[in-house]
TrEMBL record:
Entry coiled-coil feature ranges: none
Topology of the protein relative to the lipid bilayer: Lipid-anchor; GPI-anchor
Organism: Aspergillus lucknowensis
Catalytic activity: Random endo-hydrolysis of N-acetyl-beta-D-glucosaminide (1->4)-beta-linkages in chitin and chitodextrins
Keywords: Cell membrane, Cell wall biogenesis/degradation, Glycoprotein, Glycosidase, Glycosyltransferase, GPI-anchor, Hydrolase, Lipoprotein, Membrane, Signal, Transferase
Class in the EC hierarchy, top level: hydrolase
Domain GH16, chain residue ranges per copy: 27-237
Compartments, record wording: Cell membrane
Keyword Glycoprotein belongs to the record: yes
Bias (Low complexity) ranges: 271-346
Location of region: Disordered: 262-360
Name of the protein described by the UniProt record: Crh-like protein
Lineage of the species this protein comes from: Eukaryota, Fungi, Dikarya, Ascomycota, Pezizomycotina
The keyword tRNA processing is annotated on this UniProt entry: no
Amino acid sequence: MYLKHAAALVSVLPFAVAQTFTDCSPLEKTCPPDPGLNSRTFSSDFTQGKSALDGWVKASGDLNFGPDGAEFTVAKKGDAPTIETDFYFFFGKAEVVMKAAPGVGIVSSIVLESDVLDEVDWEALGGDTTQIQTNYFGKGDTSSYDRGTYEAVATPQEIFHTYTVEWSPEAISWIIDGATVRTLPFAEAKGGSRFPQTPMRLRLGIWAGGDPDNAPGTIEWAGGETDYGAAPFTMYVKSAYIENTYPGSTYTYSDNSGDWGSIEVDDSKPPSHSTTKTSTSTTTTKTTTSSTSTKTSTKTETDTETSTTESSTETTPTPTSSSHPSPTATESSSSPSDTAGATPTSDGSAPDPDYTGAASTLSTSASGLIAFMSMVAAMLQL
């Protein structure tokens, strides 16, 4: 819980500072757009080594890599290795496969945080072998610290668990190994005013909450003083996976409200609508008619083009909220449906086809024969 004892942590750890500070607060002034994840999903397999850091930036310290993935290690006082995505995502899911670090006072963390200091956390304490903490903050409000819960998990420092946050405009759910352990409805976060709802980065890191120089309250929360003589303490992360509900190249705060409905999504399909793309393909039917005489040979080719329409539909999932409008897409694209074919008659049926070639000749000959037979019948009656 990075905001729990902000005043003490700001002066001690660079990692903790990052949790309570923003270069530009959209609640106070107009800020540059946030770089966005312009795709539905993002994943990193840290067992593949440093190449998995594509899409991440180092916030503090250094990482090592091994068969268990990325290694975040506190080896001495002041160590706090941390990485964060170089993009923001806007609602969706963040899933991390992690083995927490052991050690009294050592905090292994999975954090989602925005520019307005909306925050959603998982925090495992090295001395607590039976549970993990969940927490959230809205708009940097630290007026109370009653939002955290402790959820049961088996030996998080010894085995890997999958920690997931599912985040929508309606609710946030914390999930361990596929089982939901906590759900926060929008209205329960002070009527939604403190519900995390703005584009966030995913941050992974470790730090010593039990550092002897920290405030007594911080050390107590972390489970006691950290003994650096027992170091190193290592957190392992095998993988991270993100689903992004509103893909976009940038996210822009259109006002100072910090409400999700005010976010402008650039280069994205309008999130509140389904987009249908229609493509038209053309097939060519070639009919060949040949006629032959003893002296001349004539060959006539007639090309008939028939257009057929193939439609594929791409639907953008749309979270709904009774309290807020959908975010605004600054660029939207739609493709009109182009169809070709026979025009229905007034009764809804297709008109009779026009025949060509041999079929046309047969139709004409049949009509003449019928007329001739009618004349013969009339003469016989006379």
